[in-house]
Amino acid sequence: MGQVGEKEPMAAGSYWEATAGPIKEDRQLVGDARFDVAIIGAGYTGLSAALKLASSGVSVCLLDARRAGWGASGRNGGFCCFGGTKRSYPDLVRHYGLEETKRFVAYQCEAMELVGERLQSWQVDAARHSRGEVYLAHRPKDFEGFKAEAEYLNSSFGLGARVLNKEEAAKRGLAGPEFHGAMHVPQGFALHPLRYVQALADKVRSLGARVFAHSEVTGMKREGADWRLVTRLGSVRAPRVLLAGNAYSREGAPAWLSGRLLPVMSSIMVTRPLTDDELSEQGWTSGLMASDTRTLLHYFRLMPDRRFLFGTRGGVFESAEALKAMYARGRADFERMFPAWTLVDTEYAWHGHVALSRSRAAFTGPVPGMEGVFASLAYHGSGVAMASLCGEKAGGMILGEVKPQDLPAVIGTVPRRFPLAGLRQLYLLGAYGWYGLKDR
Ligand SMILES: Cc1cc2nc3c(=O)[nH]c(=O)nc-3n(C[C@H](O)[C@H](O)[C@H](O)COP(=O)(O)OP(=O)(O)OC[C@H]3O[C@@H](n4cnc5c(N)ncnc54)[C@H](O)[C@@H]3O)c2cc1C
């Protein structure tokens, strides 16, 4: 997790880790073992696949380089929301047609419902709040676009989007100098992401799946009908394998993964609890999860314990200096957008990686040219819901119950390699510069 710089002496790593309760450490894989299915990565994707498989009586193991939920699943903003692509709906309609795009929208709604059902049926204390999500126009011209966008979302997909002008938004506790109006969609909610992934891991363990921590898969090779997955102190043989490492995947394990994902950093800070006076002084009293209309967006929410969570894009490099600059930039954005809270301390700050693909959409399906191998990844920064459902569907594919064509075509495009993949981080530098200018 990220270390914070001298400017934030109070900040102490992840708020989720500080409040999740005991974090279970599974044993490391030592020696050789055989399972029906081996899953690389124990986040929402891998665990959801394991849940499906173990529920059907299949012997399954998860191998994680660190531990269950250590990756993005245990460190995200907790927005259980629409996601899985950076493409706009009109763009998807042009490419896939209206019916396929409708299927994709319905799939995202199903994904959010799945998470809600899991939390409820397992009675997870996940600090759930927020009825839907609100998008805030950071420029007057973005607000102008909201009316047509809401009409489009409602007439094409029946989402029930509503537009609030600046005054109406302020009345509902959504005020700030950079907010020029809002669009609300009723789908989605916010949760404690680490408690959710821990509950998922507990469920998977209780069904007999094995979770191995500190067991990074460094290579994969074919042996007869099986794949052998090699870790530092052992190996697993299995005829079926799921690649679920997402942004934390190791390049080259397997070789197919090389150059196909673009990991991008995102950083989060959490303040101390805010008082009633501080909330009304800022004009932000709403418990809705929110994001602004920038391409390099900010996401934020007032949590049930009245701490404010504020997320923003990370940097490109991970040196101590670069991380310090990244946290300082996030804090400066927070103070500009919520000026009444300039003196409110950041108590927690951390960062993690999301994964992008060239098609700018998630992928769930069989890996071409690798018999028995499946992948589910690239949720484009919104995987709480999508990784949960895509993981479950990947488990269904491994069982033969789900066919690739049963999923929306939007998530069926195999990620292509980035050209000059070694320079991917430089693309980001260029993109940040360009979008930073466009967002003004
Ligand atoms: C800061 C941040 C904020 C975010 N906010 C949101 C949000 O608010 N809402 C939302 O919907 N999404 C959000 N996301 C994205 C979301 O968290 C991810 O899309 C989702 O968690 C992906 O789940 P996953 O299981 O695919 O991957 P991960 O949870 O990243 O799990 C991958 C696991 O694979 C392991 N692994 C990788 N390679 C290997 C290997 N070779 N051998 C063994 N183990 C390996 C890693 O150790 C890791 O534990 C955010 C992400 C970040 C980083």
TrEMBL record:
Q: What InterPro entries has UniProt attached to this entry?
A: FAD-dep_OxRdtase, FAD/NAD-bd_sf
What Gene3D superfamilies is this protein classified in? D-Amino Acid Oxidase, subunit A, domain 2 (3.30.9.10), FAD/NAD(P)-binding domain (3.50.50.60)
Decide whether keyword Disulfide bond is in the record: no
Q: Which Pfam families match?
A: DAO
- Name this protein carries in UniProt: Glycine/D-amino acid oxidase
FAD dependent oxidoreductase domain: residues covered = 36-392
One GO MF term attached to the UniProt entry: oxidoreductase activity
